[in-house]
Every structure is written in C-alpha cells, then in structure tokens.
Amino acid sequence: MTAYCRVSFPLAVNQAFLYRLPDELKNRVRPGSRVIAPLGSRKIKGYVLEVSDSSSEPGFQVKDLAGVIETGPVLSAKFLNFIRKLSARSLSPAGLFLELTEGPARVPETRLVVWLTDKGKEVLEEGKLRGKSRQLLELVSQKALSPAFLKKKLGDRRLSSRLKSLEQAGWIELKVKKRKLRENQLQAAPLPRQLSLPVVFPPEEGPAGSIFRALQATNFQRFLLTGEAQKRSELIVRVVDEVLKDEGYIFILVPEIEQTRRWLPLVKQLGLEAVFYHSRLTEKKRSEAWEQIISAKSRLVIGTRAILFLPVEPVRLIVIDEEQNKLYDQAENPAFEVREGAELRAREEGAVLLLSSSCPRVSSYYHAQSGGELIDSGEPEVLSAQQVVYLNQAGWLPEKIKEETEPYLKNGQQVFFFINRKGYAGYLFCPACGYVPRCEACQIALRLDKKKGELVCRYCGQSISQPEVCPVCGQKLRAGRVRGSQFLLERVKKALPDFELALVEESEDKKRMESCLKKIESGKIQVVIGTEYALSRLCPGRFSLVVIVEPEMSLNLPDFRAAEETFIRMFKASELLDNQPASKIIIITSRPGEPAIKDGARRDYLSFYRRELEYRRLLKYPPFSLLVSLSLAGSNLRQAARVSRRLMEELEQRFPALEIIGPKVKPGQWRKVRKEVRLYLRPGTTEGLTLLSQFLEEFSQTNSSVHLQSRLLF
DNA sequence: AGCACGCCGACT
DNA sequence: GTCGGCGTGCTC
Question: HSE (CB half, 13 Å, CA atoms) of A243?
C-alpha cells in the first residue's frame, strides 16, 4: 500500500495534484496540512485536500511530497468542507481560499542564495562571457545573492533557466541558507476551539425571538432583516449581546473596508469586545487582531469578506450587512460570491445567517418572504409624493439650481447632488456630420485633454494632437463635455459662487477625501456633489435637499437587474435626506414615471418589489429561475472565444435542455488587459444545477489556459 | 501563477 | 551565434 495525497496550490490552477507520501511524512500530513511539493521545475507551497491509500499506481508519473510546514492553523473537517464547496461553486482553486486562512504573514525559514564557484571566477576573469550572464556572475562575485534579487536587478525574465545552465556549467552553486527565527515565529497557532454547546437563549416572541430559537437549535437558518438602519442595528446588537454571553463566534460582514467604521460607535457605546479585521491592516495590527480572535479573547469580528476564512470555531452567527451591495458579487482573487461564501460557511457551522438591508435585492426578499424568514424591524417610512419634485433638462440651469437650493443654504442646511457618472472627459465631434475621432487601434472615442491640446485613448493610452477640422466633411470640430460629476460641479459652482463645494467621488487622494468628509459632517461644507462612492460614506439623514441627476442612465444597461440597481441607488440617495417636513428630493430626469426612480426616491420598497417581481416572473429571471453567470477570461480575445466555443459545443451536447444566453464579449474596463467572454446558463432544476456544476468544474480543469468563473444568481 | 519551449527578428 | 520579445501549453 502506498499513501498518496491530493494537493491544491494557491495558483490560478483549479486542479488538485496527486503526490506520493514518503514514509517520514506519513504521520505528519493530514487534510488541511501546508506542504511543499514539486510542481514543474519549482517547489512550492500547497494544501492537502485529502490523504488516501492505494495499491494501484495512477496512469501518470507521481512525484514525492517534499515537506510539511508545521506552523500555521490546523483546519477542521468542517472548515475544509466549506472550502471545498466554495471552490467547486466558484470554480476558483481551493488553494487560493486556503491561503486566506493563514493569518499574519510568516517570514520564510530558509532562503536560497547563488554562490560563485572557483571555476566561475576563472571564467569571469578570462572575460569571454557577455550580456546578462556576465552581469550575473559579476554581481555574485562580490557576495552571495538571492535569485529574487538578481531577477529584479538584471531585469531577466528567464533567470531560472539561466541559473540552471550556469549551475550545470559549474560556474555557480545554489545553496540553502537558514534564517534566524524569532521565538514567536516558531509557535504553531492554537487549534480551533470546540466549545461546549448549547446554552439557553431568552424565550420571547417577536423578531429577536425567532433568531434566538434558531441559535438555540444550532442548525443553519437564514433570515432577512429589513427596516431602517438604526432599528436594524439595535436588533443585531441585542442578538450579538446574547451570543456573547454564550459561546462561539460572531462575524459581521461589511461590503468594503470603509464600512467597518459604521460599527465603531455602536461597539464603543455598548462596550463590546470587537475586533475589526480586513486585508489592509498593517502587519502589526493584523497580528494583534489575529491573536485576539484565535485565542477567543474576542469573539465578535467585524470586517470584509476576509473574515469568512478565519479558522475559528464554532461560528454561531454571520451577519451580512447591506446585503444588497454589489461589492458582494464582485470578489476577486479568488473569485466568489460573498453571500454564497457566507452561507456555505454558516451551513457547515450550523450557524444563523442574517442578511440585513433597508432595500434588499428582490430575490432575497422573495426567498425570505416565501420561506417565512423575513424580519421587519419596523415600518419603513415612505416619503409623501409632495416631497418629490421632478424637473426636466431645465434643472441643469444655474438659475434653477440657485432658486431651488438657496432657501436651504441660507437656513444653514445642507444640500446633496447625486450623479452616477464620473466625468471629466471632453470629446471632439463634428457638428455637421456627427463624426467622432476614434483610436485607430482600439476603436474607442478619444478623450480630449484640453490643456495639452491632445486626444488620448483611455484604453491604450496613445495620444494624437488635436485636429482642427473634420476629416470627413471638413467642418470645424467642436468640443463636447460628458455631463458627469465634474461638469455638474462647475455648473453648481457657477450657480452658488458664495458657498464652499465638495466633490465626493473615488480619488487617489484618500487623506483629502477624509478631511473633506469631516468638513461635511461638521457642517462646514454645505453643498456636496457625489457619485455612488459618496452614498455609503455620507451620513444618512444629513441633508435637507437631495438633487438626483439623470438616474435613468443606468436603466438601459444590458442586465436583468438594471432596474433593481437603479432603484437601490435612488433609495440610498433618498436615505441621506433628513426627515423634516420641508425637506425634499428633486429629480432631474426625462423618465419621471419609471418605477425604479419613482419608488426609489420615495423609499417605497414594496411598490417597486411587486412590480419588479412581476417582470421577473414574466421573463423567467431570478428568483423564478436559477441563472449561472459564467465568465471566461483569457489573455487575448481569440483564446477566450475559442474556449467559449468549445464550452458551448460540449454544453449543447451534454445538456440539450439547457438554456444558454449569450455569449457576448464583455466591454473591457479601461486598462484591463484580460478579455472576457460572458454567458448565462439557465438550468431548469436544482438537480440540473448539480450536474452542470460538476461538468463546469471538470471543464475548467481541462481548459486551464483561460480563467473560468461561475456565479450563481437566484 | 510561473516556467519552459519554440519561433522570430535584431544585433553584436 | 546570442539575446530578448511574445505566444502557447503544462504542472501530479
């Protein structure tokens, strides 16, 4: 009998590799172990998924496992199950997920150095060598250096093959050097704690009561909590408080790092022992947080999706704050759907999953309502129709802006302008024939840089000098402006020259933005213009007038959730309004009757929900069907298209009843090098989904030249 | 991912 | 001949 193990690597290779276990490693390797394994010409870190005995050799050459790394967390079977399921669902390699469980970075215990041999010295002195090889030997002649350093210094992409040939010639030697380790680096992380369960929760009726009963049962159960933010957090805090009296961990998941701040005052006020955890902590902070969590000194963890991979047990409650947030479906490296990840973890742990939002996704609401897991923390406040004013294009006029805002500003109140388009970009066009200069290579309309007098391609970065006349009809070209945030800023400035304005949108200068937000909070800045970025960063209930500019733009996006997303944005913008009788919302739009706009502004969730649900029912979109969203990303379009054709053929053959929507090429984001082909699959049943998932997993393993990502929409 | 390998054009 | 650039395919 020979012992084998399957190993997954933290690489973009969704495949487990089989290795033989040498006798001396047999007792030290178990599922979850971190190991060193030879892969191609390198030796790299990987994670053992399973260990097995077999008497028959597989049909390929099996290499021996090279070693075990004994430090690091020990993973339970439950936890590995969670990782395996998530990996299968998302088609992302288990190794990438497992790397996230490691906690603070550890300094490697050894390092490789390149030595110059006597023979190498001779060759160097003879002076026959040229180019990079000579440079390399010269560098190494002073002192031994690491391959990584040499690669950087020489700018050599093929350093490893060069080292190999130099080593073979006997001119250099590769040696392993041991590093001195500090005491704490040698310690293995403690085992996940298995706590004694269960304990009694207060018996009561009402919203908290049903959550307590679910916690008591320690079985997976899913709730949707809706209602106003303040009331929702009050309820969450009550539940958290009870669990902390008991045992086990609580994860509160927020969509982005920024949003951990919202929980800070609440935690302080209640004197809760909480740890904030996310990927951008400094090394020291990360170690401290890790230590707090692992040792169970703190069992309440608030943070981004990184917290789902904390190897602690048992987890009793996972809260997904702002469940409607799009960032939850955009996790990358590894790619996965965060809500799905949270649910899989909760299922494995027998924990309660609590989705929370004032305007949940239509699917979430539908599933919660039909499953009886909806908790409404209080009557939502719908604005009266009188508080919402519609303007057409005239709303852009400086005089109009002045007229509408001045009463509020003179009163010392604040005004927010919401525009969902970042825009600095100007462009050239021909007023006679409509010609627009495009990049010859990329076929994208060129952006006008007025200061430099140049036209620039956003895609490839190439620029040409600004032409005067239209090459088609000879007319003088005119400059147009995208009516985005920058344009709006200038307009408002013109209308309100006596007030200080702030533009709140994504920017490089994080510090400036921070002080800007503080000035808004203190009331120093009265007029704020913001994009979607601002919605999650400004305080709800702060503004007396909210002006929403052309929200209909996002309605035409080719996505069945376009209306829902528009509605959510409207709703969130509307939540910034204080609840004074004189306060109002102005919407500059050409489509005032659109439900997403009308209901969003008034925060009338149910009205929008009913209508949208009907639309989804008619078109058989989620929640009335399952959709698998697939993306194939390759280094170039041809490659991605080739694999997508192969995929289509195989799908049609194996699943004749499967509905395939697409494929189409995703319009590339600026600067993105990878090209993506997207398609949707609609399996009729859940059994169909299981078979489909299996097939997709196999397919992604045999077609590793492209990046396959799958996302389940339901 | 990273690495090898092969093909190609440029340049001692 | 040798070097570097780029595309392709594989790793137990």
Answer: 35
